[in-house]
Task: inverse folding
């Protein structure tokens, strides 16, 4: 047990330390929604179009990302990203969404942006996933990606040191199995089947996995199991949630409506939550050792972030999506007219 203090132990052994696992949940949800959309399109007789798929992804993600990127480059960092060659190269790597391929640019500009590059790279190989699924089936594809992640972990000591631990350990092929797990859940859900059987079983597996994940953080020997346990915990929780019987009383409740608002602007929240959530909390005073004060400051700070993010959702995200839809419709109309 490698704890420097009792406070450190409490943080590592409590749910408040699970924030990092939001990346795994995000990838699972992404794989689930993208693949479920593909399956429903097939049901309607639509053929997968890479051009349409990448157009939707581009207009949904890239314009808000570029806005946030330029803001953090120039409003926060000043003119260095225009005058210094190393900073210009750093900015270019972010613009092309490849900054997660090297530790030197992994956490620069905004430390949250590495996962957006990873997500974009997962979109690029989605057609490969569909091809493998057609030949092997989604279950075998998932097993194959798990084995690939294990192989990459085993050969990591022999990898080039110039890549870096962050870039290597979170590469698109190392985390592909997480995205495929979401796609596998989508396929089971689409066919009316489950992975874990009854809802109670899924919830029990989720709770057990979270418990094991918590203790796996504590020692170096069990650390390699932390992310896989996180994936198992979230995928089982997600399945339990999918079949949760929501009624009108639930959907009209304030927590549910607040969750919907947060969900709508969650992408903008992700783009700007670092470093501002911590900075706003510090603006309201030092944390101190009073849990009630910390919770109040956290709630107020998060509310400010949500208000900012909802504005970006309305004035940036929705118009960007509309522009993409309009361009695709115009292209489709031209194709019909030419035919």
Result:
């Amino acid at each position: 047990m490698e704890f420097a203090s009792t406070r450190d132990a409490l943080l590592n052994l409590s749910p408040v330390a699970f924030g990092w696992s939001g990346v795994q949940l995000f990838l699972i949800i992404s794989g689930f929604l993208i693949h479920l959309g593909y399956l429903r399109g097939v049901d309607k007789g639509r053929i997968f179009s890479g051009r349409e798929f990448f157009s939707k992804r581009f207009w949904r993600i890239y314009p808000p990302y570029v806005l946030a990127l330029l803001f953090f480059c120039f409003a926060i960092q000043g003119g260095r990203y225009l005058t210094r060659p190393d900073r210009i190269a750093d900015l270019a790597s972010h613009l092309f969404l490849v900054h997660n391929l090297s530790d030197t640019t992994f956490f620069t500009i905004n430390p949250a942006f590495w996962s957006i590059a990873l997500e974009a790279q997962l979109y690029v190989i989605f057609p490969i996933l569909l091809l493998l699924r057609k030949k092997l089936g989604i279950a075998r594809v998932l097993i194959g990606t798990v084995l690939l992640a294990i192989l990459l972990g085993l050969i990591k000591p022999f990898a080039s040191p110039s890549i870096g631990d962050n870039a290597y350990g979170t590469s698109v092929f190392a985390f592909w199995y997480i995205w495929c797990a979401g796609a596998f859940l989508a396929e089971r859900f689409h066919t009316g089947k489950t992975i874990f059987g009854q809802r109670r079983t899924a919830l029990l597996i989720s709770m057990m996995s979270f418990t094991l994940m918590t203790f796996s953080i504590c020692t170096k020997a069990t650390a390699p199991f932390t992310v896989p346990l996180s994936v198992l915990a979230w995928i089982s929780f997600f399945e339990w949630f999918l079949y949760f019987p929501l009624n009108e009383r639930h959907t009209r409740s304030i927590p549910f409506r607040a969750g919907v608002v947060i969900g709508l602007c969650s992408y903008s929240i992700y783009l700007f939550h670092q470093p501002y959530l911590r900075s706003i909390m510090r603006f309201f005073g030092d944390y101190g050792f009073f849990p009630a004060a910390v919770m109040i400051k956290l709630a107020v700070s998060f509310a400010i972030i949500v208000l900012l993010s909802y504005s970006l959702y309305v004035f940036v995200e929705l118009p960007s999506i509309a522009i993409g839809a309009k361009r695709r419709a115009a292209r489709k109309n031209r194709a019909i007219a030419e035919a």
Summary: The first helix runs from residue 6 to 12. The chain has two domains: 21-193, 246-339. The chain has a mean pLDDT of 90.
